[in-house]
Amino acid sequence: MISIENYPVVGKINGTINGHKIDAELHGYVYMEDGRIHNSLINMPLIYSNLQQLIPLFNTINWLFGAIHRFSDPIENGFALTGGVVNRSALIRIFEVDNTTEQSIFNIEQYFRGIESGVLYVDTYINGSLPHPEGNLSVTIGNNNIKYTKRSLGHYDAKSLTTYTLTSKIDTNSSVIYNMSYEIEDSLTFYECLHNPHRSAKEIVVSTHDNHIYHSIEETTIRFFTISKFGTQAPKFDPCDSSPCHGFAQCIPNLEQNSYECKCNPGFIGDGIRRCDGKNLNHIKVLYINECIQSPCHPNAICTNTYGNFTCECKQNYIGNGFFCKPINGEIETCTTKICPQFSTCIQDPHTRQARCLCKDGWQMTDDHENHVHGVYKSVCKPKQCNEYYNCDTNANCLINENTQKYECICKPGFYGDGYSCTAHFCSSDGDCGYNAHCLPDEQRPGFSKCVCDPGYLNDGTTFSTCVKDVISCNIENKCHANAQCVYNERIDRHVCLCRTGYKGDGITCRHEHSCVENATICSPSAACVYDSILQDNVCSCRDGFVGDGIHCAETLGGPKEQFLIVNQGQTILKVPLTASGLTTNTDNRILYVPRMRAVGISTDCRQQFVYFTDTSGKTIQRMKYDGSEQKIILSGLGSPEGIAVDWVSRLVFWTDSLLKRVEVAKLDGSLRKVLLDKNIQNPRGIAINPELGYIFWTDWNRQNPRIERANMDGSERKILVSDKLGLPNGLYYDHHRRELCWGDAKMKTVECVRDDGSNRRVILADQTTMIFGLSDGLQYAYWTDWSTNKIGRIDKTPSHAPDSVLLPSGGNGKLYGLVAVKNSCPNDINNVCSENNDCTVGQLCLPNLSLRAKRICQCADNAGLQCLLRERPPPPPPPQLG
Description:
Elements: E1 7-17, E2 20-31, E3 36-42, H1 59-65, E4 67-68, H2 78-82, E5 85-96, E6 102-116, E7 119-128, E8 136-141, E9 144-152, E10 155-169, E11 175-189, E12 203-216, E13 221-231, E14 249-254, E15 259-264, E16 301-306, E17 309-314, E18 318-320, E19 325-327, E20 344-348, E21 355-359, E22 363-373, E23 376-383, E24 396-401, E25 406-411, E26 415-417, E27 422-424, E28 437-441, E29 449-453, E30 457-459, E31 467-469, E32 484-489, E33 494-499, E34 503-505, E35 510-512, E36 527-532, E37 537-542, E38 546-548, E39 553-555, E40 562-569, E41 572-577, E42 590-593, E43 599-605, E44 610-615, E45 620-625, E46 632-635, E47 641-647, E48 652-657, E49 662-667, E50 674-677, E51 684-690, E52 695-700, E53 707-712, E54 719-722, E55 729-735, E56 740-745, E57 750-755, E58 762-766, E59 772-777, E60 781-786, E61 791-796, E62 804-806, E63 819-823, E64 844-848, E65 856-860, H3 866-872
Parallel strand pairs: 1-7, 4-13
Antiparallel strand pairs: 1-2, 2-3, 3-13, 5-6, 5-11, 6-7, 8-10, 9-10, 9-12, 10-11, 12-13, 14-15, 16-17, 18-19, 20-21, 22-23, 24-25, 26-27, 28-29, 30-31, 32-33, 34-35, 36-37, 38-39, 40-41, 40-63, 41-42, 43-44, 44-45, 45-46, 47-48, 48-49, 49-50, 51-52, 52-53, 53-54, 55-56, 56-57, 57-58, 59-60, ...
């Protein structure tokens, strides 16, 4: 079933234009509700400025994701027909207007591979030529219509003629304008079922308007924006088609008088035409309202300003709707107790810890007007007709009812139910049985089969296919999951663990029936599937820079953004852009060069925007600004400092020393140095921190006993988190959003993660061609330095993604060591007691330790002197009282 929502579009573009090899990336985003489509061509330096004319490249995306206009008969767009799996072949001829001589010609071949983990992937191949006059080029194009005609089952083609203007700016005083036109021959093919109730229209007219093209030389990116509408005919005159209103205003048309009215969106002020924008586009001075200034949220909530709105979210360990928050104190609403209507699922909001009901695809929440008590209506999920949205059970067909003349879901022969849920009397395959059961021949009924529980499982008698684990009766030894209950089963005469409604499993382990662990696509593309220790389940949680319930996430104003990477390359430290190829023409990428230096570990102070790094050759720790200025040695005379981690909250720096075999800490200016751990450490390397919980983590690649350990920031309560299936654990980072610790293993050639208690180990990269050294945490990607290729690799942290690489700019040579992904702000809502004014005295370090009553301990630095040690010594016991 296809869900109508917003999708990123991602793919590679290869080929040749005007003899130049093209190796670029397509990054797009579509808003299906109103047809807004953003596309970007990445890796487009100045020599490719003529590729601004590649507007036909996106015609199929417009066909897939256009929004139906108000003048059309009801039809489906291309995405509803194809599911995003479609092949395209196009021939484009370019002429100068009033000149029939062909100027250029190029071919496009595109293969749309459908939705994977919430992303539409497409492979594009282009070949041919484009006009390329001298000067700085820009392209403008007006509204246009393309008619797609159905030729056969799963085959549309189109022929269209579109005009555009190509402007070549020679210098500040002169420019040349070329009036050009495209002649496009397009062919689309896809699989179309003959009996599909979504029968495709004979003609589909796709109209685009409000087109904008911009080439950012600095970011080496060409950006395209359009609004795509479709219908059975071209749209009639609509006074709002010209987009007369501001970008954050609504246009309200008056079709009878051919007029319109512009109204700013909620939270914006202005006339709706010139003002009420929340962005600064084209250097126009605009005004937006920051609703959070008025403190609309509860004191124990966080207010986040979004475009045209705001959100209130209760702080951690508080519960509520953001306008009212109270301490959790064990009182949380979970899907265990939430009663949802049929055909809906319960989702947990990771911020409020509240449960809410969400109708499944093809169903909508409404009041039940047939059943109510004293005018109070219950909410129910009612289906759309299956010809509008195919929501039938897999064991049902969508057929027309001759009596009602409406499409209805009818169970197939051998199944019974209402068509939306069909159950087999007898099984025909394992898919008809529940978990922990298989479909096997029924010895008592020859020719039939039945569901038989797997060894170690028993049928609990509730349905013919429900099996539970055969363990000691849970009333004697209760090992039931938090989302299960211990109930007596008369059929087997024992108490068994049974997962609660909305959960599935064997009772010992229960997972939400719509868990993002099994299906990450239920989360927003701007969210991640993370474990919630209070709910004891995985939930969708919006990434930093976004707010919402995890199913839907909205971008915040001023939220954290990934800016660039900083990577150590021996004598050189480089800044690596993330929005471009890295192949810049200047030397700004090299921010530091020191002969005979070997920079290894690296970390950042996101609060003061300093980068800290270790130099194993000079035996020092240094710091500098992100641009390389204010370089300073803060610690010297070390052994072989390797890994480094900055606690931006407590204002501390932690590092590992592989020669001295210890873990140390100091203040960020290098003062008050202290050894935390120096026993049973052989080859420490990577180090990471969690300021909120007061933990330090480190890797030890001792070949006889490799391990990953954790301790409090004062060195107490040391614990081994991982010790099996390790080879050479190197780089290490802590993901504050997912609450995971991740490491790169140079021998096992993997990147793996565990929770901060060592549980739920998972692999996010397994690539036998890699040799991982440094590892860093980005908002969406994990980045690493690869000694086998001397490149920077990256992989999306959500499941089922393939790795790729970030191109390294010029300016350095030699092996790559540590790296760090730099964001424009610190992680949200992370704090500890050492960030406030603490009562530690001169010479003492404030070290977080949540196991203590004060949540921290004041300890003298090793170089603090005798006076500090005397103050730290506990007072002598009182003298005994004499009778």
